[in-house]
Amino acid sequence: MADASSGTPIRILMVEDNALDAELISLQLGRAGLPFTAERTWSHQGMVAALQGERFDVILADHVLPGFDGDAALALACEIAPDIPFIFVSGTLTEELAVKALKRGARDYVVKSRLQRLPDAIVRAISEAKERRRLLKVEAELRDSHQRMRLITDSLPALIAYFGRDHRYRFANLAYFEWHGREPQSLLGMHARDIVGDEAFEKMQVHLDQVLQGRRVSFETLSRRRGATPRHAQVDCVPEIGPDGAVMGYYAMARDISELKHAQSLLTASNASLEQQVAERTSALHRSESRLQALFESSFQHQNLLTLDGRIIDTNSASLAAILATKQDVHGAIYCESAWFAATDGVPAIVCQAVLDAAAGTASRHELELRLPTGKRAFEFSFRPLLDHQGKVTAVVSEAVETTARRQAEEALRQSQKIEAVGQLTGGIAHDFNNILTVIAGNVEYAQLLIDRLGDGAGNAGRALDNALKGVMRAANVTQRLLAFSRRQPLRNLPVDLNAQVSDMQDMLKRSLGELVQLEMLHSPDIWCVEIDPSQLEASVLNLAVNARDAMPEGGRLTIEVDNAHLDEDFSAQNPDVPPGQYAMVRVRDSGHGMSAETVARVFEPFFTTKEVGRGTGLGLSMVYGFVKQSGGHVLLDSAPGAGTTITMLFPRSAAPLPSSRPPEEPRRGLYQVLEDTTVLVAEDNDDVRAYTVETLRQLGYRVLEAHDGASAMRLLERTDVTVDLLFSDIVMPGMSGWELAKRALQHKPALHVLFTSGYPRDIDASGTVGRNIAILPKPFTRSDLAGSIQLALQDEAAGSP
């Protein structure tokens, strides 16, 4: 490379067509004392050949050339030799053209009338080109150095990064992708807090502050690796000191030392060998032992550390709490003979064998149900060997997770699914059975009316029909209990004072229990209000009392207690289907012979009974269960052979005030009066029930229209020539339910009265009327039931709101 200061000739490519101008340029360079050699050309081909054949230090070009101009020469130079400085030397170059030329890549321009500027322009251009080449070389070397550093750092498994004083990434190696799943380039500019998290950064802050003060620091932290649990890392930070002594930033390297920490944990688990460790490791081991002990004591798992022959070395608080003991009570005791297992038959032998297997290097798991001083509880035990760094078994670890709540939840789910399946079956049977009973009951009662007109001559037939009607009513009671169990019975929920409601049953209960059973009733002075069906509550209490009487054939004591109950989270954990909250309860407790666990598991199933044939249907407790569940409550059962039975009905507390008196009973329906010019529309999909209902209403004196489904009923109601006073509709119909029919009918005729009937209102929730008084005539119904309900529905102005 030519250097004007050293006397080395400057190699010039002169693109000039005028020989005189070329000579003047050479003379001017000679006067300036610049050593040079020049090659002249003035065509495109000549310039290409010159640039491809020789290396030049500078290009001097005229702006106007024959068949070839300066702009084309500049473009050609930028294409073939972009690093050679290009200077315009022209007599026609204006200032505007010169500026454009500089923008296109020219280094300078000189007007031929002022050639004395040319030597300085050439020296400056060559010097600038030399500096540019030097900078390019330095940049290339810097890139090579950076690349070598990148290759070195990327080959290391440790995290290596450079941070500014603001703790933001300036450099990161490839290990960040393996650890955190992030490309190194994506980290540039991010704050360290964004990668390690707020909590971890706060813990490291004290160390990083020391680095920014110019100190080297080393500390340990927990680092989260992609797809793995947090692992221990050793972090070393080195500050970068600037020329002025200020800290410009710092380098950080993090290494995974989890294996080392694991080895330290194994050392702390040994007993006798700890005393033989070298003195310089004692302090570190004590600190590690303290941390492990804190974790050991705070764990919810039951943990025990045993010798190879099964004696207790250490046990944590959770395990001791289960047997109400202290560490001094159990230290050195044989584990399988301790209070954890001694009271449970067959378990000590299982535990003893599991400890021996673990001491031999074989881990095992066992599900055990134990009788502990704190009660009967279930656990999942694991027994595993504890190995030292050489793989030798040094101790046995016993861990247990309590599964009592999970087992109870699984059992509750199985029971619920079983009862739900039986409930769906029995509910469907009740629907069809009630339709049949409606037809039978109505026709039997009508036959009674006809026979009554014959007088005394039909006495035997009348008694037969009376017995038939009683049988129908008993069958209807069975279906009602089926509906109660399947939680589909219509409930007439009212605010109820449980004290008053149960007290009013005292005389009836005494008559039902007999003289051998002593009745005791306990009340709460500040009982909470509940919203339930009073008649169903009385039926449930009576059912429970009769069952208790049958469980005490030789006599005994029956206690009925009314009280408030606040169920907390612990209770709900033991009974997963009972949400915590405030409840009012009715508890029925007897001193009878009690029930086995097998009987308790099935006691709420319909048709299940322990009584001999003919003494019970097996629907009493299932009805109680269904009623309480449908009321939003829960039933608790506690019984054991020889210890009596306690059944508790829990009802959610209501915000309504306690009623001041008992609600009035419904008026008798035996007497009725037909309103003149009254039209009843009967909507019923069962042909036999519809035919019986229509015929009965016509006999009673009503005008009757009939429809076999909801759509047919709506077509009749929409006719302008038809007037309907009362809609008597079944609830369960194909296509359009009774609820939907009533809503559409009331939109068309707001003054319409509505009376529902159903043998199984399985979509009662869809009506939005649960817990309110709605006009429903349950199936089966007799002629007098139908007449009285129709009359009440026509007299009740509010009966049109389904």
Strand content: 15-25%
Count of extended strands = 27
Overall shape: it is elongated
Mean pLDDT: 78
Descriptive labels:
802 residues; alpha/beta; five-stranded parallel beta sheet; five-stranded antiparallel beta sheet; 26 helices; 43% helix; elongated; disordered C terminus
Task: Describe the overall structure.
- With 802 residues, the protein is α/β, with parallel strands linked by helices.
- Strand 11 and strand 12 form a beta hairpin.
- It is built from 26 helices and 27 strands.
- The model is unreliable at 613-618, 663-671, 765-773 and 797-802 (pLDDT under 50).
- The N and C termini lie far apart (105 Å).
- The strands form 6 sheets. The protein has a 5-stranded parallel β-sheet, with helices on both faces.
In short:
The chain is α/β, with parallel strands linked by helices and 802 residues long.
Topology:
Blueprint: E1 10-15, H1 19-31, E2 36-41, H2 44-53, E3 58-61, H3 70-80, E4 86-90, H4 95-104, E5 108-111, H5 118-154, E6 159-164, E7 169-172, H6 175-180, H7 184-187, H8 192-196, H9 198-212, E8 217-223, E9 231-241, E10 247-256, H10 258-269, H11 282-298, E11 302-306, E12 312-315, H12 317-323, H13 327-330, H14 347-359, E13 364-372, E14 375-387, E15 393-402, H15 404-452, H16 459-485, E16 494-496, H17 498-503, H18 506-513, E17 517-522, E18 530-532, H19 534-550, E19 556-567, H20 569-574, E20 581-590, H21 597-602, H22 620-630, E21 634-639, E22 645-652, E23 679-683, H23 687-700, E24 703-707, H24 710-718, E25 726-730, H25 738-748, E26 753-758, E27 776-778, H26 783-795
Parallel strand pairs: 1-2, 1-3, 3-4, 4-5, 17-19, 23-24, 23-25, 25-26, 26-27
Antiparallel strand pairs: 6-7, 6-10, 8-9, 9-10, 11-12, 11-15, 13-14, 14-15, 16-18, 19-20, 20-22, 21-22
Helix pairs in contact: 2-3, 10-11, 15-16, 15-23, 16-22, 19-22, 24-25
